[in-house]
Amino acid sequence: MQKQEQETFPAQHQNRQPGREAEMNPRPCYDNPGYKAAGKLTGKRALISGGDSGIGRAVAVAYAKEGADIAIVHLREGGDAQETAEAVKNLGGRCIKIEADLRTEKSAQKAMETAISQMGGLDILINNAAVQYPQNSLLDITAEQMRDTFESNIFSCFYMTKAALPHLAGGACIINTASVTAFEGSPELIDYSAAKGAMVAFTRSMALSLVDRGVRVNAVAPGPVWTPLIVSSFSPEKVQSFGSTRPMGRAAQPYELAPMYVYLGCEDSSDVTGQVFHINGGTVIN
Hints:
This protein is an alpha/beta fold. The chain has nine helices and seven strands; from the N terminus they run E-H-E-H-E-H-E-H-E-H-H-E-H-H-H-E.
């Protein structure tokens, strides 16, 4: 898929979460054909939740280029997961698809066991699965929505990390996908912002908890990124101007974030833990 820059998008909406990347217009750019791999993840085994589309797919492709074996966890079977697996396979990599609802600990544990059984171990865990449900007021956020938002965004991160811990040796790492909203807030994404704020605190606490074991824990906090999450949560009007208010005037494409996950997953970042990296189109976070 060729790189592209887009300042505005056609109005569109998908009536389910997670949305489908195959139905987006234009399709997100998950692969940078100019990326120069250096074997930085050769022999590594990585599990990516939400790896079937969006940022997760871009990371899977970049990791495949760098030599990693990959397992992707996705909520439901469909074309997105298969397309990601084929993209990895076309790069000479291995991609295991695991269908699981990570909102429950039992399902997360089973997904982890499947991944480790098929890959023979785990070196990198990427907690990336997410949902968001915009509302105009806290009064519009039901208890059911609040539970779903936290179970999908932060409980899943707890469950997957807990399931991974017995299998992570020194040199392993955990990478969490947070959000710019954890730092600047959002009037329409109150529960989502709160869940992502919890992920930031979880990242820092786990980094301190695991530092003596030689396991590093970091996070990436994206700004607006053109993914299925956007078209499945925002109105057509919001989608049309998505990302345009950022200093760079556009939303990022998923491939633009992938190199940061490569950096955090390889030895280049061996002295980095407990940190949050901001890729957000120019928004300054102090």
